[in-house]
Specification:
By secondary structure, the chain is α+β, with helices and mostly antiparallel strands. The protein folds into 3 domains: 3-320, Distorted Sandwich (Beta-galactosidase, Chain A, domain 5); 324-420 and 455-484 and 521-636, TIM Barrel; 641-749, Immunoglobulin-like (Sandwich), CATH 2.60.40.1180. It is built from 13 helices and 39 strands. α6 runs parallel beside α7 (500-518) and α9 packs parallel to α10. The structure holds alpha-D-galactopyranose.
């Protein structure tokens, strides 16, 4: 049993293979969070909660003589505003009499088997796992409000999920001002925060800061999870490394506005609150209405960051992404965006398909510009019918051509958007989110559709379905190319405008579900100007997301590494693009670009008509190499190898198969040097007793001095390395010279 309740001591134990989570109901029926971390047996961890009078931290009325007991210092399982807890809270409400106090006390609990769905929201699936769920009801008797805290305990996978449902049982309406998915107090901890910030074309950069006595907020008000702050944070020991130390992960399964608030309180404990951001948010609850928060995925590792990442990779790949695409081979694709941008016609697309096919590529994706009046990015969004001038044979003809060559066909949509210059906007100007008394803020000259309205979702679904039904489509790239502003729905009253951003997400999730349900064989790739909506919410519908509009390989090293802290490589859309690169002008050797793009879903984003014969041959080799290592890369365990402190010289990472029989090690020199230190790496995750040989080396090094070229050292292949030697003693490579040199080494256990 993963969930146990000790009636006498009033303790909840949530137990996974290596972790434990405890809550205790105190003498005032307050639900306290007493522990989350490495297994501790069944010890009651509430001894960690010390009752000390801190002064200016008030006491509950019924315990006013015990000055050490204060809502301001107790570790609440779900903290609320107004009743003496002055730290950052998870929930806030305005009652009908204007009162802002919410004071929750324990009411009841229930345990069930299996994982339940979360109404209208993405969630962690559990059909194939041994999952138990716990529901704890808290109530505010005065306000007549109930909060149901829900926990999913994935015992084998060391994962606990949480969400909350707030229900108004009173006859009078109330207004939620904040409804986070969770709060948690980590007692007496001194920790660092790792978060993933960025910008368009430079997403998920790793930033690690020591927490200080203030409230650190990471979040987005852009209507999307955003390029700028991913809804995933890690708290870790000051000295935690990739392979040592305690770390906690908190990942929101949501794609809209969010906030992760971390406060170090007066007594030195840390509170984490995560969920939908409260700025701009409000939600009216009439009698018997409830609000369900998004789910959060929590994980703990006592062995450093690599292990924490592994826990997330496994749960995302196996329990969040649609299982239909988990184990099927995803096709290596060619996308025409960077090859042609808007400048294509039927003839040029046929040529691209032919050239891609010749190079061994398995799917052609037609990007933006095939519909409406869309010759640039100023018009046409919303008009999801084919542009006959560019494509007289429609989508059908180009898809049939790909099919005739044995290639799959994919198509780009940006369903949640509309241009002013479109038939859709001319017919339904009120379908765009827009404050009626103002001119809207424009982004890429487009507006955001009001997805909170069912008729809008219905219309978009039907127009997409018509296109999808017209051709054999295997893949959809689903884009979202601006931040949301003037978030106002013409269909909602004034006191419900704070609901629009979340209702928008519910509408988008509904549309995504309908496409999934009606076209289960179509694989979707999420996208938002690259990785502006790279989150577990989108991954629930599409198993991969275009990682960044920056396709330049050396920048991608950092983007993909940052993304990989929470998300598996099987989710990262990653392509080889032209050199010099269109985003930053950098020139990188073809093989280095391929080695980096292979640590993702792999494809090409260039004009294959411009490739030389040698380059086409090179692509054939790369595609067959990727296909050979497909399982290892997509399903193997991923390790970050290079140490952040030496990262300026090279970046290295590794995949190990589940049975440890093979491993793929990649290394790219980012700062090539004369007379350099030896590129030295310690491998991870191998079978310590196994004997490994280097089975294949793929390298960009062509102009190295004779004695330094890895390729020329064939006798190296003959060495037998024990797994223990590679992990403890490491691997000392020859120096690599030239322009962004790289090497990919395949190891096989004998
Ligand atoms: C976004 C995507 C690109 C491309 C363009 C098309 O920026 O990230 O890959 O699809 O839109 O407009």
């Amino acid at each position: 049993m993963a969930i146990n309740f000790n009636e006498k001591k009033k303790i909840f134990f949530l137990t996974t293979k290596n972790t434990e989570y405890q809550m205790k109901i105190n003498e005032y029926d307050m639900l306290l969070h007493t522990y989350y971390g490495a297994s501790v047996g069944k010890t009651d961890m509430s001894y960690l909660v010390r009752e000390i009078d801190r002064g200016f931290s008030g006491n509950p009325y019924e315990g006013r003589d015990k000055r050490g007991i204060s809502p301001d210092t107790l570790p609440f399982e779900y903290s609320t505003y107004g009743a003496g807890d002055f730290r950052v809270n998870a929930a806030g409400v305005i009652l009908s009499n204007g009162s802002r106090t919410m004071d929750l006390r324990y009411k009841s609990y229930s345990v069930s088997e299996g994982k339940k769905e979360l109404s209208g929201l993405p969630y962690v699936r559990g059909e194939e796992d041994n999952v138990q769920m716990l529901e704890i009801i808290l109530e505010d008797k005065t306000a007549n409000i109930e909060v149901c805290l829900t926990y999913g305990v994935f015992e084998e996978k060391d994962i606990i999920t949480r969400s909350a449902m707030i229900k108004n049982n009173s006859d009078k309406p109330c207004q939620l001002t904040k409804a986070a998915s969770m709060s948690m107090d980590l007692l007496h901890k001194k920790m660092d925060l790792i978060h993933f910030h960025g910008r368009h074309a430079m997403e998920r950069q790793v930033e690690r800061v020591q927490l200080t006595h203030d409230i650190h907020v990471v979040g987005s008000k852009r209507g999307t999870s955003s390029h700028h702050n991913n809804p995933f944070i890690i708290l870790c020991d000051h000295d935690a490394t990739e392979n040592n130390g305690e770390c906690y992960g908190f990942m929101l399964v949501y794609s809209g506005n969010h906030a992760e608030e971390i406060e170090v309180d007066q007594a030195g404990s840390i509170r984490v609150v995560s969920g939908i951001g409260s700025e701009g948010f409000s939600w009216l609850l009439n009698k018997d209405e409830s609000f369900v928060t998004p789910e959060i995925i929590m994980a703990y590792s006592g062995n450093g960051l690599n292990e924490l990442s592994y826990l997330y990779h496994r749960i995302i790949r196996e329990n969040v992404c649609p299982k239909e695409f988990r184990d099927v081979k995803r096709p290596v694709l060619i996308n025409n965006w960077e090859g042609t941008y808007f400048n294509f016609d039927e003839k040029s697309l046929f040529e691209i398909v032919d050239a891609g096919h010749e190079a061994g590529i398995e799917m052609f994706v037609l990007d933006d510009g095939w519909f409406g009046k869309r010759d640039d990015d100023n018009s046409g969004l919303g008009d999801w019918f084919v542009n006959d001038r560019k494509l007289p044979g429609g989508i059908t003809k180009i898809a049939e051509h790909a099919d005739s060559l044995g290639m799959k066909f994919g198509l780009w949509f940006e369903p949640e958007m509309v241009n002013e210059d479109s038939d859709l906007f001319r017919t339904h100007p009120d379908w765009a989110l827009c404050d009626p008394d103002r001119k809207p803020v424009m982004g890429r000259n487009q507006l955001v559709l009001d997805m909170s309205r069912k008729e809008v979702v219905d219309y978009i679904f039907e127009s997409m379905a018509k296109v999808i039904d017209s051709a054999k489509i295997s893949y959809i790239k689903w884009d979202f190319n601006r931040s949301m502003a003037n978030i106002y729905s013409n269909a909602l009253p004034a006191d419900r405008q704070g609901e629009v951003a979340h209702r928008f997400m519910l509408g988008t999730y509904d549309l995504l579900s309908r496409i999934r349900k009606n076209y289960p064989e179509i694989m979707m790739e999420g996208c938002s100007g690259g990785g502006g909506r790279f989150d577990a919410g989108i991954l629930f519908y599409s198993p991969q997301i275009w990682c960044s509009d920056n396709s330049e390989a050396i920048n991608r090293l950092k983007i993909q590494k940052g993304t990989g802290f929470g998300y598996p490589v099987s989710t990262m859309g990653s392509h080889v693009s032209a050199s010099p690169n269109h985003q930053n002008g950098r020139e990188v050797p073809f093989i280095t670009r391929a080695i980096i793009a292979m640590s993702g879903t792999f494809g090409y984003e260039l004009d294959p008509r411009k490739l030389s014969d040698e380059e086409k041959e090179e692509i054939k080799k790369e595609v067959s190499l990727f296909n050979r290592y497909y399982d290892l890369i997509q399903r193997g365990r991923y390790f970050r190898i290079s140490n952040e402190k030496t990262e300026d010289y090279f970046t290295s990472w590794q995949f190990v198969s589940g049975d440890k029989s093979e491993s793929l090690v990649s290394l790219v020199v980012t700062d090539v040097r004369a007379n350099p230190e030896i590129p030295f790496i310690k491998l991870q995750g191998l079978d310590p007793e196994g004997e490994y040989v280097i089975d294949n080396i793929f390298t960009s090094v062509t102009n190295a001095p004779e004695e330094a070229g890895i390729k020329s050292k064939e006798e190296k292949d003959k060495i037998r390395y024990s797994g223990r030697a590679l992990m403890n003693g490491g691997l000392a490579l020859d120096p690599l010279y030239g322009v962004y040199p790289s090497v990919q080494i395949h190891l096989k256990r004998l």
